[in-house]
Write a structure and sequence with these properties.
Elements (H helix, E strand, L loop, with lengths): L2 H10 L6 H9 L3 H17 L3 E10 L2 E9 L4 E6 L4 H8 L6 E3 L1 H8 L5 H7 L5 E3 L2 H10 L7 H13 L10 E2 L2 E2 L18
Antiparallel strand pairs: 1-2, 1-7, 2-3, 4-5, 6-7
Helix pairs in contact: 4-8, 5-8
Length: 197
């Protein structure tokens, strides 16, 4: 039900309330719901034997957006974003985590992009590199000679870093609208900080 209809309904039963007041009541104190929604996605992603995804176009505030449904046998979440890119899709799957990991899984993905072979060689390290978020990840790439303003390169490297977030034993990828089981790598304790390695 739209807020306009809800306002009309409430006014019709004698409650003097404006649409703005209805919106204020509906959006007040949502922190607990947001935290619960995030926890549902995380719990579902680490416990479901398989995860399905589907997306559809949606109009919001007079702009085109995309709503993605991510679910399993015991959970479903919906995310509406302005982008339908692979990078956005992978970001949705990792939920509230913002980590990037350059490991074997990330480099396996980069090997599928032959034009990035020289770049891959410069980035490969004996041990996986973990980054808490995009800022240290981009700083590391810049120090390695990557043009961080090259949108195509950053898109591919971002996809690789997010795929590296999932361990190689649980490959993560789309097969139609079916996502094979993925489990995130916990990066919270050993996050790479520029200058520390």
């Amino acid at each position: 039900m739209t807020t306009g209809r809800l306002t009309t309904l409430l006014n019709g039963i004698g409650i003097d309330i404006s649409k703005r007041q209805v919106v204020g009541l509906l959006t007040k104190g949502l922190d607990g719901l947001v935290a619960e929604d995030t926890a549902v996605l995380h719990a579902g992603m680490v416990s479901a034997p398989h995860v399905t995804v589907d997306d559809t176009g949606a109009r919001h505030a007079h702009d085109n957006f995309h709503t993605t449904q991510i679910g399993g046998e015991h959970f479903t979440v919906f995310r509406t974003t302005a982008s339908k890119s692979r990078l956005n899709f992978l970001s949705l799957l990792r939920g509230s985590y913002h980590d990037y990991v350059l490991n074997d899984a990330a480099f396996d993905y980069l090997h599928g992009h032959p034009s990035y072979m020289a770049l891959t060689a410069r980035l490969r390290a004996p041990e996986p590199r973990r980054f808490c978020n995009q800022v240290p990840f981009l700083e590391y790439l810049a120090r390695k000679g990557v043009d961080i303003f090259d949108k195509a390169a950053i898109r591919i490297l971002g996809e690789a870093g997010i795929l590296g977030f999932y361990p190689p034993s649980r490959p993560c990828g789309r097969d139609g609208d079916h996502l094979r089981r993925c489990r995130p790598v916990s990066c919270r304790q050993s996050c790479f900080v520029p200058g520390s390695h």
